[in-house]
Amino acid sequence: MHFAAYAYVGESCHTPLAYYNTNLVGSISLLSAIAEAGVTRIVFSSTCATYGEPPADLIPISETCEQRPINPYGRSKLAFEQVLKDLAESDEAPHGFCFAILRYFNIAGADPRGRVGEDHQPETHLIPRCLQAALDDHQVITIFGTDYPTDDGTCIRDYVHVDDLVDAHVKVLESLKPGDGKIFNIGTGRGYSVLDVIRACKKITGVNFRTNNGIRRKGDPPVLYADPTCIQKEMGWRSKYTGIETMIADAWKWMLKNPHGYKEDD
Ligand SMILES: O=c1ccn([C@@H]2O[C@H](COP(=O)(O)OP(=O)(O)O[C@H]3O[C@H](CO)[C@@H](O)[C@H](O)[C@H]3O)[C@@H](O)[C@H]2O)c(=O)[nH]1
């Protein structure tokens, strides 16, 4: 399972070479190394950012939606999707080669039993940023854009509990057979706006943290949510956590226990 990547949409617009180097060149090196090591099955973490800004009539987004990413992050992930497909079709592919591409929507939450949580340096993701603001009243959440063509003017995303993501990986990996090339969206099929998320974070934490309205963040599409029918039908996978509040509650539980993230030796 290949998870390693740079994954900040905004940052990718400022440092594209680092993104292509890690997400594309690094992934190709990994592919060569695993072939030498005799590994033939690969599950690749891709992203809904490969879809770009689909027109309204193609939302919810299915796997057949045209992929036209609008930021270097999405383009670097899409390029490696193509590498996998090309390799699979070629004589260079190791005997029995098979792959799965999982296009994640917005992964959120934490292990419900509190053992593992989210800790990015720096933290840019909406939910952990809101929870940090609930812990520290010096922090203010900037809403990146209130003029999007959505009901409340803020971006809509499909938040998926990390526990559901784990479950999808296990199901897909166990199902892969030589010659397979599977592609699945990993989403709940439900979209929440930035304001919905902020409201839910305030409710779960009980803290009325501060927010302000800012300008749009470069590279952010207005609306992204999945049509998860394909993985539901083929793999019997279905998100167990469809409500944003449970994801936030699990993330909050972890953050209260680990306000400074992982320790050096964790
Ligand atoms: O302080 C903040 C942080 C985020 N947002 C907005 O909240 C939404 C969600 O942002 P974020 O949590 O940063 O996630 P995304 O940028 O949507 O990116 C995530 O989701 C992508 C798929 O959409 C994945 O591919 C990426 O790896 C992952 O970082 C976006 O509309 C942001 O503009 C704010 O308004 N203020």
Automatic annotation (TrEMBL):
The annotated pathway is: Carbohydrate metabolism; galactose metabolism
Catalytic activity, reaction form:
UDP-alpha-D-glucose = UDP-alpha-D-galactose
Name the needed cofactors.
NAD(+)
Q: Which GO terms describe its biological process?
A: galactose metabolic process
Which InterPro entries does this one have?
A: Epimerase_deHydtase, NAD(P)-bd_dom_sf, UDP_G4E
Domain of life where this protein originates = Bacteria
GO terms (molecular function) for this protein are: UDP-glucose 4-epimerase activity
**Keywords for this entry?**
Carbohydrate metabolism, Isomerase, NAD
Q: What is its EC number?
A: 5.1.3.2
Task: Tell me which residues make up the NAD-dependent epimerase/dehydratase domain.
Answer: 1-187
Q: Which SUPFAM superfamilies match?
A: NAD(P)-binding Rossmann-fold domains
Q: Which family does it belong to?
A: Belongs to the NAD(P)-dependent epimerase/dehydratase family.
UniProt protein name: UDP-glucose 4-epimerase
